[in-house]
Amino acid sequence: MPKKGPKGNMRVVELFAGVGGFRVGLERASDHFDTVWSNQWEPARKKQDASAIYVARFGADGHSNTDISTVPVRDIPDHDLLVGGFPCQDYSVARTLNKADGLVGKKGVLWWEIHRILKAKEPGYFFLENVDRLLKSPATQRGRDFAVMLASLADLGYAVEWRVINAADYGMPQRRRRVFFLGYHKSTPLGKKLVATKRPENWLLRKGIFAEAFPAQAKDGKTIRSRIEGDLAEVTEHFNNGPHSRNGPFGNAGVMVDRTVDTLAVIADHHGKGTTLGDVLLPLDEVPAEFFIPEAKRKAWMYLKGSKRERRTNAANGFSYDYMEGAMAFPDALDKPARTIITGEGGSSPSRFKHVVCMPDGRLRRLTPVELERLNMFPDGHTAGTADGRRAFLMGNALVTGVIERVGKVLERRVKG
Prior knowledge:
Elements lengths: L9 E6 L5 H9 L3 E7 L9 H10 L4 E2 L16 E5 L23 H13 L3 E7 L12 H12 L2 E9 L10 E9 L3 H8 L3 H8 L1 H5 L2 E3 L5 E4 L4 H7 L14 E5 L2 E5 L1 E3 L29 H8 L2 E6 L6 E6 L30 E3 L5 E3 L2 H7 L12 H9 L4 H16 L1
Parallel strand pairs: 1-2, 1-4, 2-3, 4-5
Antiparallel strand pairs: 5-7, 6-7, 6-10, 8-12, 9-11, 10-11, 13-14, 15-16
Helix pairs in contact: 1-12
């Protein structure tokens, strides 16, 4: 395991960096986080605007804009902390004749790139993010993908804790639920503490990094213990593969040590003041005219946002079916946190899922790129330099940096202590 960088700084490698959400959060948390290398690559796009924004904000030194699968591990510097919000795909593995180790990603090759780097570099810590449905995917074997990941991390010598966090539950301006997981190599002080923990619920509710950064209470009952057995191909084939596979074994908080999993359902325990959608809005005179909804299009927006029960026909095959959906808030409430930003938030066309706010003069408008940045707690103008629609897309792909900042503050102090 490599030693820390100069002055005791934690050297950070950021994968799937996007526009640098982990880096923004960690650098706000402490000047002891030093990003020594980063990688951002968007397949099938000629214009790599996320990477260009990253370079514009942080500089080109140590930044890679190539497919991570083509980067030799020797080109990645030694580091203490690996971070990244990796795409949600299929993480399964299978046996093949030409891969004796059984590690063959189907679509989830990006997870195995993380695995490859952890195996070669052995950083003391990692901090990763994904959509919360990862804990229950795929639908036919609930939790299998996460089990494969946990087993592979255990085999590399890491103990892991995870927590599903809704940023709005802790006073942040967006309702965005994501699963975050921290890994500690068992040779580190934090890893040794987690391994030695006799009552996992104490770690989950009091002693762990997430417990300190995001206080929570047990929703009901005690931790549930299970084990992940077999090699990775056997986990893929057999984990939760039975008549009760519709129920996943992983709660929204948990720890894993040596493939033994203790999981618990928790609820947020936060009593501070929260930030609302209204708090992030620009003054009316700073909103460009193109973000206001013309009166002629208001009816189309109302239809898409409204409840529906209608007969529809598939144009491709002529199949008719009854379609139903409930109403969306229209306009969005200003006294509550915003709904989750999606990648399709940009553009002027009417949409069911885009945010719409009402101005004091009664006019309706969409959110500007700066307001979307604020909902993810980025600095104003962080994504400037590309088209407004792309800026919205990049924020839909980003994370709430305030979550990273709070974890970073606790992690930095606990690692130093």
